């Protein structure tokens, strides 16, 4: 007869010395882990609550401009350099981690309308209401004496055109400006080498595609979004929306996708090849969207609006996942996603530049492995249980300013009543007279080639 | 995919046609997730080679049977450390003794009916505390760790720390006859002499709910460890199932024609064993049918308990039988005779040990193959340090499962809540285009056989419930029973109310 009895040697279960870590034998048998689903649910609920507890997105502000911040630009290579232009013609360069202004330039008289970098990112080109195009070194000064505004441009072009926006070619020494017409300039030559026109309207935004680098997109005040190919010298395509677009931004990962910030409170994502059907409509703002920027991963967009809020949208969803606002932040003029996908920078009407976390609850700084694992586990739990009503409610809840709250309610009432009316009309007319128009196509007037 | 114990159901993408998932991206995502699940399954299976311990067993030669073995024989064949696990405490004065092992199996709590309470580390035999409360002790139970325990005394229920200092007196739990603790919910479940059943959240010290069963004193009560539903055995032969969320019992099963004497539920919530005054031991399938599986005549069981690996201890009179392979072919495995009548027999978790509290003391016997060999240290750790215990306590409090989640069906949380979906859809204004979602369940699998018993039992249950609502339950039920039987069935076994199930099953 043989008898085998469980007899555990304690030495195998206790650590040998005080400096060792504790031994933790695991057994993944489900019988030893009862209430699997329930416990995970509670963990997910706790994780969601913690997310909201730690959601403190505002990091700080760059104080220094004495007029409306009109435009912002990030350096293509340097994570820490930020450039901002103001309505009094001042351009400032900032060091983001130090939150310090490293250079100030009196670039223009009147508004600074736009900024861009040359393909080698050595030179910053600015335009202003004084109809000048100015070239500056993008590097901060070595000596501190230059900080006070007596920095001189490398070069400047005096033009006869109204300039409202500028964008540089990604590979060649070419840049485009717009205003009365869309102009193409080469290097530091005094006259534009090409002029693009489609209709007689003024344009307010122009952007080169960063990867399909000969394609140029812009929006005009005749409510259209235009696409040009600079090789052909002619416009490719144009789409007319119901209201004017304020700004466009190309997706850095998918060259044919761009998003337009529109006056009708929405942003529209388009496929350059089929402008008739927008890929997505981003709704949530309660006033005109002024500026939009893609995250460097191409998965999210950030929008700044006239309703004093910043919203972050995931590209495959129609509503924002996050809304940022502070009591003092006024109308947004420009927003940026930094190149490390971690921060959002916003410039607004009350002369301030603010920096925000892209994920409001993210812990900054390096994480220990265990900490990171725990956070990853919590993330996947949140994803798994995201559709549970309790969890969804907590995760979605955001406090918004009163005017946004009321405007949103009002808009909803308007939308409902429109829908109701349309439905009534549909019910009392012949079939097909009042067709179902998809939400995405409602604001697209026409596409022209 | 191989269906092992880690398997949690088939994947979505494989069971459904491709076109059911409309979006291409979604389909891809689902497939990716399924792959991850499969990987996890493979890894969990692979991780089994890291399990260091093997479960105990007895190998006997031909012609021998394990049933012939006595404790002294087993002790002779095991190592010295294990031999010390078989011992006897002679406590004649204050019996009979109720016992309780702490959740990690290290500490033992004895509660003598005449007022003797003792807690000790039964492996090292180190006494934690011992006291005489000078009133009757009906039941004792460890709480979430070995720092606190509860004792149901004559009038009220008290909570003591491991020094024996009274921490709380729960006056809301008065005249309690049986206690159970739900570690994941932090609920202390008590059955009152008055027939009431109550749940107290020990983390906040509040009564969660208290309902009347109106079926007499609740001294036979046990909790299903897999779904936290309380099973109460009654004098009318029924076992009723209770959750803190419903005023009425969620189900009631007629198990015996005589009063119930003991109930036990196995670790994974698959089987329920009931013992009746008729001297029968019955096994029931708890998963969905409540179908009776077997019925054995063993004498009146005063105590039943399942071990982690599925052995069943049956205490009858002064002997304790241990069955292996419960189910269709029930096999007796070991037998132990104690000095006094068995009051409560409980297997020690993570050890091959059965503790038997009797009228004349306590017996600890070795039962090879009873305990789970490989514990999960993040769940229950017999070798826990003080710091680990503190850490685990905080963690388990953070993960306390809300009472609302206790229900018969554990998977209900993972199911689609069609009801509220339907409600939301109905509330939408008519101009909103309604989503085309099928709210009905998918067709049942073709192979799934639902035993006919279920139907019979269901009608039985319905009738019973309807009757319960109408009239006082305590009398009449037993009288009604034979009348409903057809004469043909009653010919078979006249005293067996479940005979008709057997008949139907054969068809």
UniProtKB/TrEMBL annotation, chain A:
Organism: Orchesella cincta
Keywords: Nucleus, Repeat, Ribonucleoprotein, WD repeat
Entry keyword annotation includes Ribonucleoprotein: yes
Stretches forming WD repeats: 62-104, 105-146, 282-323, 325-366
Domain Sof1-like protein, residue spans: 358-444
Chain intervals with Basic and acidic residues compositional bias: 414-426
Matching PROSITE patterns: WD_REPEATS_2, WD_REPEATS_REGION
Ribonucleoprotein keyword on record: yes
Protein name (database record): DDB1-and CUL4-associated factor 13
GO CC list: small-subunit processome
InterPro entries: Sof1, WD40/YVTN_repeat-like_dom_sf, WD40_repeat_dom_sf, WD40_rpt, WD_repeat_DCAF13/WDSOF1
From TrEMBL, chain B:
Presence of keyword rRNA processing: yes
SMART domains assigned: BING4CT, WD40
Annotated ranges, domain BING4 C-terminal: 332-410
UniProt xrefs under InterPro entries: BING4_C_dom (IPR012952), WD40/YVTN_repeat-like_dom_sf (IPR015943), WD40_repeat_CS (IPR019775), WD40_repeat_dom_sf (IPR036322), WD40_rpt (IPR001680), WDR46/Utp7 (IPR040315)
Keyword flag Repeat: yes
Ranges of the WD repeats in the UniProt entry: 253-288
Subcellular location, record wording: Nucleus, Nucleolus
Region described as Disordered: 461-507
Keyword annotations from UniProtKB, A to Z: Nucleus, Repeat, rRNA processing, WD repeat
Single biological process term from Gene Ontology: maturation of SSU-rRNA from tricistronic rRNA transcript (SSU-rRNA, 5.8S rRNA, LSU-rRNA)
GO cellular component, one term: 90S preribosome
Pfam families reported for this sequence: BING4CT (PF08149), WD40 (PF00400)
Protein name: WD repeat-containing protein 46
Source organism phylogeny: Eukaryota, Metazoa, Ecdysozoa, Arthropoda, Hexapoda
């Amino acid at each position: 007869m043989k008898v085998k009895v469980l007899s555990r040697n304690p030495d195998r279960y206790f650590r040998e010395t005080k400096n060792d870590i504790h031994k933790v034998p695991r057994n993944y048998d489900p019988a030893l882990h009862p209430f699997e689903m329930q416990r995970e649910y509670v963990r997910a609920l706790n994780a969601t609550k913690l997310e909201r507890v730690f959601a403190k997105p505002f990091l700080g502000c760059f104080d220094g401009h004495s007029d409306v911040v009109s435009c912002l630009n990030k350096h293509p290579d340097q994570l820490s350099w930020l450039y901002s232009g103001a309505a009094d013609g001042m351009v400032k360069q900032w060091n983001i981690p130090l939150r310090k202004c490293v250079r100030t330039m009196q670039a223009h008289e009147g508004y600074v309308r736009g900024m861009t970098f040359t393909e080698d990112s050595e030179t910053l080109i600015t335009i202003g209401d004084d109809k000048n195009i100015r070239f500056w070194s993008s590097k901060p000064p070595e000596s501190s004496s230059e900080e006070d505004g007596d920095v001189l441009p490398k070069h400047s072009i005096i033009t006869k055109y109204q300039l409202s926006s500028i964008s540089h070619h990604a590979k060649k020494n070419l840049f485009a400006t717009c205003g009365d017409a869309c102009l193409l300039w080469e290097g530091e030559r005094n006259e534009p080498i090409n002029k693009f026109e489609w209709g007689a309207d003024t344009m307010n935004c122009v952007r080169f595609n960063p990867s399909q680098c000969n394609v140029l997109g812009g929006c005009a005040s005749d409510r259209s979004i235009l696409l040009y190919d600079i090789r052909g010298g002619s416009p490719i395509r144009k789409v007319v929306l119901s209201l004017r677009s304020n700004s466009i931004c190309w997706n850095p990962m998918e060259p044919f996708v761009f998003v337009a910030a529109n006056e009708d409170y929405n942003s529209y994502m388009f496929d350059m090849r089929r402008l008739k059907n927008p890929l997505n409509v981003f709704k949530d703002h309660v006033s005109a969207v002024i500026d939009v920027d893609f995250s460097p991963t191409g998965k999210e967009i950030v929008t700044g609006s006239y309703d004093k809020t910043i919203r972050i949208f995931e590209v495959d969803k129609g509503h924002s996942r996050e809304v940022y606002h502070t009591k003092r932040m006024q109308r947004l003029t420009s927003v940026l996603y930094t190149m490390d996908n971690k921060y959002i920078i916003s410039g607004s009407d009350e002369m301030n530049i603010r920096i925000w976390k892209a994920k409001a609850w993210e812990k900054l700084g390096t994480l220990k492995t265990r900490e990171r694992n725990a956070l990853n586990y919590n993330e996947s739990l949140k994803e798994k249980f995201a559709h549970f009503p309790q969890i969804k409610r907590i995760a979605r809840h955001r406090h918004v300013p009163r005017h946004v709250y009321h405007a949103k309610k009002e808009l909803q009432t308007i939308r409902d009543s429109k829908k109701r009316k349309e439905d009534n009309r549909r019910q009392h007319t012949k079939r097909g007279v009042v067709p179902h128009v998809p939400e995405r196509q409602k604001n697209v007037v026409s596409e022209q080639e | 995919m191989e269906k092992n114990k880690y398997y949690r159901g088939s994947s979505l993408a494989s069971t459904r046609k491709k076109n059911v998932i409309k979006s291409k991206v979604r389909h891809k995502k689902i497939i990716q997730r399924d792959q991850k699940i499969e990987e996890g399954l493979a890894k969990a299976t692979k991780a089994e080679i890291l399990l260091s311990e093997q479960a105990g067993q007895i190998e006997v030669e031909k012609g021998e049977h394990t049933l012939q073995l006595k404790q002294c024989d087993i002790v002779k064949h095991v190592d010295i450390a294990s031999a010390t696990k078989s011992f006897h405490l002679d406590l004649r004065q204050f019996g009979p003794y109720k016992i309780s092992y702490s959740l990690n199996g290290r500490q033992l709590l004895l509660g003598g009916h005449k007022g003797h309470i003792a807690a000790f580390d039964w492996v090292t035999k180190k006494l934690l505390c011992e006291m005489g409360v000078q009133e009757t002790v009906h039941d004792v139970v460890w709480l979430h760790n070995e720092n606190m325990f509860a004792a149901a005394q004559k009038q009220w229920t008290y909570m003591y720390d491991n020094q024996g200092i009274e921490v709380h007196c729960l006056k809301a739990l008065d005249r309690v006859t049986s206690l159970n603790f739900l570690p994941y919910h932090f609920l202390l479940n008590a059955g009152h002499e008055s027939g009431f059943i109550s749940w107290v959240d020990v983390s906040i010290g509040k009564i969660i709910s208290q309902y009347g069963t109106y079926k007499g004193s609740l001294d036979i009560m046990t909790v299903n460890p897999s779904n936290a539903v309380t099973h109460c055995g009654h004098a009318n032969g029924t076992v009723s199932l209770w959750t803190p969320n419903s005023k009425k019992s969620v189900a009631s099963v007629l198990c015996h024609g005589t009063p119930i004497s003991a109930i036990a539920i196995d670790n994974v919530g698959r089987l329920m064993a009931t013992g009746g005054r008729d001297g029968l031991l019955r096994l029931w399938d708890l998963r969905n049918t409540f179908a009776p599986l077997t019925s054995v005549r063993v004498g009146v069981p005063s105590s039943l308990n399942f071990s982690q690996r599925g052995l069943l201890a049956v205490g009858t009179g002064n002997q304790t039988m241990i069955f292996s392979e419960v189910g269709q072919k029930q096999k007796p495995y070991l037998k132990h005779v104690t000095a006094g009548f068995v009051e409560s027999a409980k297997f020690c978790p993570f050890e091959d040990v059965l503790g038997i509290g009797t009228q004349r003391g306590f017996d600890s016997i070795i039962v090879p193959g009873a305990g789970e060999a490989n514990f999960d240290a993040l769940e229950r750790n017999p070798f826990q340090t003080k710091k680990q215990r503190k850490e685990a306590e905080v963690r388990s409090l953070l993960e306390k499962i809300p009472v609302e989640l206790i229900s018969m069906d554990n998977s209900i949380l993972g199911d689609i809540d069609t009801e509220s979906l339907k409600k939301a859809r109905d509330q939408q204004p008519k101009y909103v285009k309604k989503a085309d979602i099928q709210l009905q369940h998918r067709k049942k699998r073709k192979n799934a056989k639902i035993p006919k018993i279920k139907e019979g039992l269901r009608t039985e249950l319905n009738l019973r419930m309807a009757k319960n609502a109408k009239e006082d339950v305590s009398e009449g039920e037993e009288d009604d029973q034979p009348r409903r039987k057809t004469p043909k069935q009653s010919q078979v076994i006249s005293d067996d109310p479940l005979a008709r199930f057997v008949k139907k099953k054969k068809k």
